[in-house]
Amino acid sequence: MTQPPRPFADDAPTVQFSAVGGQAAPGGPVTYGEPAPDQPKRSRARILLAGGITAVVLVAVGGSVAYGYAGEVPRGTTVLGIDLGAQSRSEAAAALRAGLTEQAERLEAPLPVRLGERVVEITPADVGLAIDVDATVAAAAESGGGPFSRIFGSRNVAPVVTIDTAKADEVLRAALGKDAQAMTMPAVTFSGTTPKAVHPKPGLGLDPEKSAQTLREGWLGIRPVPVPLVEIHPATSAEEVDKLVAELARPAVAGPVTVTTDRGDVTVPPAAIAKSLVLTADKTGKINPKVDEKKLRAALATPLGKVEVQAKDATMTISGGKPAVVPGADGHRLDTAKLSTDLLGVLPKADGRTVAGTMATTKPKVTAEDVAKLGVKEKVSSFTTNFTGGLTSARSQNIVLVSKETKGAFVMPGKVFSLNTHTGERSYPQGYKDAPTIVGGKLVPGAGGGVSQFVTTLFNATYYAGLEDVEHKPHSYYFSRYPSVIESTIYPPHLDFRFRNNTPYGVLIDTSYTSSSITVTIWSTKIYDSVTTEWGPRRNITKPVTKYLDPGPSCIATSGIDGFSQEAWRIFRKDGKETKREKFSWTYQAEPRFICAKPPA
To answer: Low complexity: which segments have biased composition (predicted)?
Structure first.
C-alpha cells in the first residue's frame, strides 16, 4: 500500500515546555537525538527495546489477521454440521454438496406435517423442498464479524431452503382432503328466467404462501411441521351478489335481444339468455360475468337456422356408371363468439337491446381438388342380399329408406364410418315403420325392423373390399338369407356397424335396390387381387324348443331354427399370393319354435 508523504521539518509542530532532564533554551523547543549530557546512555537501549517489542506485536497481529481472513468463508463456519470455513466460495460449494449427499437419507425422508387435527407425511421432493447451495455459501461468506470474531469465533449458518409453492399447495390440499371446509362460492343461477342469488360463505383451508413459508422454516427443524389452516373468504361479497342480480341478471332476462345481420334478424329470447349467461365464481370467489358461446349457440339452434348455411364438403357420386366429383359449397355462420361479448353490453339495459351481428363465410374442409386426388376410380366390391314381400311391405320400405340415406357416403382415408352416426335416429319421425325385430330373444314389431339386412349387405361389401372391420355383431339366430358368421345386426345406441378406411384412397358407398334385393357397391382403388371367404364346418348343433306366447298383434310365430358354432376366414390375395387371413367366429342360439297360443292343458 502506498504510504502518505512524510511531513517536512518545518511542517512539524513546535512544542513549547520547560526542559526536564533535557537541554533547552528557556522557552525554546526540545531537541531530540543525542541525549543531554546529564542523561544516561541506557535510555537509548530502552527506546530500541520498546520499538522491537512493538514490531513483534505488529507482526503477530498481522499474522493473526491473515489467518482469520484466509478464504472467502470465515473460519469456524458450518452449515448443517458441514465445515465450510477458510475456503473459497467454489470450494465451500463443493464441500456443501458432498456433505448434503452424505445426509441424503435425512433430507429425503418423509416429512411429518400437522394439518388441523391430523398428521400426514409428505415427500420433500414432491413439494420442491431443496437446499440452494450457492445461496447458502453466499450467506456463509457474509456471516463473519470483525477480525477478532473471524479469528476466534464459530458460527452455524442456516441453509437457504427453496420450495415450489404451487406443488406444495397441491400436495397439501390433497392431504387435507375432506378436512378442508370449502367456501360457499357466490353465484347467480337461473330457475327458468328467474335469477336466484347464492351468497358466499367462508371456508377453512390453506394459504399457499403461508404453507410454503412454514415448510421452508420447519423442514430441518421441528417435527411435525405445523402448517396453519386459515379462514378463506370468497372475493365477491353477499352485497356484490345482490347488486349483480339487480343490475345485470334481472334486466338481462326482462326481454329479448335482437341481432341484426345482412341475412336477416335473429331474436335471442330471455330463455336463451338465461341458459347462456354465466354468473359463477372462479376459484378465488370472484364473479366475472360472461355469455357462454356454446350454450348460446345451442339455445339458438332454431333461430340460427334461418340465417346460417352449413358449408358442404366436396364429395363424389356415380354419374353415368362412373365416379364424378361433386364440388363443395361455402357456408354462412353467425359469429357467436363476438355476439357473446357484445350481448354483455346490452343485457343490463331496458331499452336499445339490439346488437349488430357479424356473418362469416365458412369454407368447405374438403375441396373438389382434394377429392379428385383420392383415387376413387373403380368398383372394388359389390354385395347383394334378397328380401321378400316386395316394396309394399314395411320391412322392405325400411331397407330402401336406410339405403337411400347411406347412398353417396364418402369416407376419407383413415376415417371411421359409423352407420348410426351417418343416418342418425331411425324411428317413426324419420319415416321408419314397424317390422319384425329381435328383442329379448323373440321377434316383435319395432321401428326400423329389416335395417339389419342392409347392415349385413353393407358389412359384406366393405368386407370383400378388404376394409378394416371396427364393429359388427352377428344376429343371435341364424337366418338363411344371410351368409353365416359374416353378417351383422344393429340396435342403437348399443350396437352399431363401423368400418375404417384403412387405405390411402377415398371410399365411396353406392347403393341400389329392386323390389326384391338390396345392393351395396364400394368404389375406390383396388388394393388386393381378391378377398374371399373359407368357412369351417358347423358344429355344436342345438335344436329349437317350443314356446307358447300370448296371442295378439305383437306376437310373431316362428318355425324354429337350429343353433350352431362356426368359423369363417377372410383371405387376402395379392400378386397371386395369400398375404393374410382373418378369423371370424360366432355361435348362433337355436331360435325357439314360437306358437301364438295358450299352451295345451
So the answer is: 19-29
The CA–CA distances, whole Å, from 474 to 453, 478, 487, 490, 584 equal: 11, 9, 5, 9, 10
Alpha carbon distance 309, 363 (integer Å): 11
Locate cell 378369423: which residue?
Answer: 583
Q: Compute how many other C-beta atoms are within 10 angstroms of the C-beta atom of residue 568.
A: 19
The span from the CA of 531 to the CA of 504, in Å, is 18
* Cα distances (angstroms) measured from residue 441 to each of 193, 484, 547: 48, 19, 12
Amino acid sitting at position 217 = E
Alpha-carbon dihedral of residues 274, 277, 282, 287, nearest 10 degrees?
A: -90
- d(C-alpha 417, C-alpha 449), whole Å: 22
In whole angstroms, how far apart are CA 94 and each of 71, 82, 88, 524? 14, 11, 10, 70
**Cβ neighbours of 529 (radius 10 Å):** 12
Quote the cell numbers at residue 162: 427453496
Q: Which residues contact 379 (CB under 8 A, 6 or more apart)?
A: 521, 522, 523
DSSP state at residue 485? S
DSSP symbol at 599: P
The pLDDT mean for the chain works out to 87
DSSP alpha helix (H) spans, 490-555: none
Residue type, 260: T
Cell of 167: 406443488
pLDDT at 34: 44
Measure the CA angle with vertex 324, ends 319 and 327; round to 5°. Answer: 120
Q: Is 486 helix (H, G, I), strand (E, B) or coil?
A: coil
User: How many residues are recorded in the chain?
Assistant: 601
Rg (CA), the chain: 47
Q: Do residues 460 and 570 touch, judged by C-beta distance below 8 A? A: no
At 515-569, the pLDDT tens digits run: 999 999 999 999 999 999 999 999 999 998 888 888 888 788 878 889 999 999 9
Three-state DSSP at 442 gives strand
Which grid cell is 245? 342480480
Spell 432-466 as b/e; 16+ CB within 10 A means b: bbbbbbbeeebbebbbbbbbbbbbbbbbbbbbbbb
Residue with cell 359449397: 329
Instruction: Report whether pLDDT(336) > 60.
Output: yes
Give the integer Cα–Cα distance in Å for 293 and 271. 15
Long-range contacts, stretch 124-129, CB < 8 angstroms, 24+ apart: 124/219, 126/167, 126/171, 127/163, 127/164, 127/167, 127/168, 127/171, 127/172, 127/215, 128/162, 128/163, 128/164, 128/167, 128/168, 129/161, 129/162, 129/163, 129/215, 129/216, 129/219
What is the longest distance spanned by two Cα atoms in the chain? 167
Secondary structure percentages of the chain, helix, strand, coil, to 5: 30, 30, 40
Please tell me the pTM assigned to this model.
0.56
